[in-house]
């Protein structure tokens, strides 16, 4: 089915970017027939429609973002985020600081998570480059949030925190899967990896280390029996 060019453009815009083209008004031009002896109105009268097209942009390129975080609010208004398995994150609203604390004990794994968090925030323009330093609590790492006049700095920080936690999810899932597998190997092993009690007969000596018949220099150079 033939479509005029303006209809094709309208369909493409509406399909790709949700832009609807609405004609403001339509000019109709009627061309009268050339005077002849006999006039066939149905054949000789021509109608030309020239629409004036106006564009109404429905989609203003605004993007709605939804995410979930395990967040608590402290009495002073600070946001406490507990989604990560190794560290706890505190967003200090009044001081405009981001601090990461070890969840349990300090280790290289914990410091690696804190360093990745600060590097992510620095790379995405949330915290100042030269503000990353150790906190006054052992094992903590902190950074100062940029001041912004165009966007809400706290909302931007929370959004980037959710993005970072999502980026850490595959690694955390893999580590948890490995730990679960090792636990299952110990507690619920396969049948070919286990033996029933008494299936293997008891022997007098087990292993390669002999308990007796060895030379013991501490017993005045005597052999043990």
Contiguous low-pLDDT stretches (5 residues minimum) are none
If you average the pLDDT, what whole number results? 78
- Bin the strand percentage: 15-25%
Strand order of the largest sheet: 3-4-5-6-8-7
Computed over alpha carbons, the radius of gyration is 38 Å
CATH class term of the domain at 71-171: Alpha Beta
Broad structural category: alpha+beta
Q: What distance lies between the first and last C-alpha atoms, to the nearest angstrom? A: 105 Å
Task: Provide the helix percentage.
Answer: 25-40%
**CATH arch. level architecture of the domain at 71-171:** 2-Layer Sandwich
Task: Indicate the CATH topology of the domain at 71-171.
Answer: Gyrase A, domain 2
- The beta-strand count equals 10
Note the main sheet.
6 strands, antiparallel
Distinctive features:
Gyrase A, domain 2; 4 helices; alpha+beta; six-stranded antiparallel β-sheet; 30% helix; two-stranded antiparallel ribbon; single chain; 225 residues
Can you characterise this structure?
This protein is α+β, with helices and mostly antiparallel strands. Among the domains are: 5-57, no CATH class; 71-171, Gyrase A, domain 2, CATH 3.30.1360. Helix content is 30%, strand content 24%. The protein has 4 helices and 10 strands. It has helices at 5-17, 41-44, 108-123, 153-187, and strands at residues 19-31, 46-57, 71-73, 79-81, 87-92, 97-102, 133-134, 141-144, 215-216, 222-223. The strands form 3 sheets. The protein has a 6-stranded antiparallel sheet with strand order 3-4-5-6-8-7, with helices on one face. A hairpin with a 4-residue loop joins strand 5 and strand 6 (97-102). It is elongated. The chain starts with a helix and ends with a strand.
């Amino acid at each position: 089915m033939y479509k005029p060019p303006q209809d094709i453009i309208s369909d493409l815009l509406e399909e790709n970017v949700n832009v609807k083209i609405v004609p403001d008004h339509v000019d109709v031009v009627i061309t009268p027939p050339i005077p002849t002896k006999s006039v066939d109105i149905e054949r000789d009268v021509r109608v030309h429609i020239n629409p004036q097209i106006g564009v109404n942009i429905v989609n203003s390129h605004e993007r709605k973002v939804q995410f979930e975080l395990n967040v608590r609010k402290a009495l002073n208004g600070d946001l406490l985020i507990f989604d990560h398995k190794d560290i706890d994150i505190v967003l200090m609203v009044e001081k405009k600081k981001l601090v990461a604390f070890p969840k349990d004990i300090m280790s290289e794994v914990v410091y690696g998570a804190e360093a990745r968090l600060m590097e992510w925030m620095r790379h995405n323009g949330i915290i100042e480059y030269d503000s990353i330093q150790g906190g006054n609590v052992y094992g903590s790492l902190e950074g100062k949030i940029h001041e912004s006049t165009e966007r809400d700095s706290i909302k931007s920080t929370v959004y980037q925190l959710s993005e970072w936690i999502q980026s850490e999810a595959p690694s955390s899932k893999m580590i948890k899967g490995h730990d679960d597998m090792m636990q299952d190997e110990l507690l619920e092993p396969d049948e070919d990896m286990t033996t029933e009690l008494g299936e293997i007969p008891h022997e007098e000596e087990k292993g390669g280390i002999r308990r007796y018949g060895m030379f013991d220099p501490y017993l005045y150079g005597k052999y043990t029996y």
